Amino acid sequence: MKHAEAQATVLARMAESRTELLAAYVANEPMRVAYVPRALPKPRSAPWFLRTPNAELIALALVGVTILGLRRTVQTAVGAGLSASTHRAFADLFNALRG
User: What is this structure's pTM?
Assistant: First the structure.
């Protein structure tokens, strides 16, 4: 029974210490200001073409059509696409020949 008595004494001291520490913390605690969220304006929904993953390409096409005209924009886009495709094909061919 000696062990149980010692354990009860230690637990009683721990409870007293905890109570004292909590009282000291509450007494020394700085005042807290509650966070008051501000009402943010609801963002306007963007048009469907600006919500797509290719919004940059669509915007570039619209600017190109506005500045260059439809025919020159299509010629430029097709030329750039063919150039990139040809470059990739030759690069793949040379890499395959290289080993």
Answer: 0.39
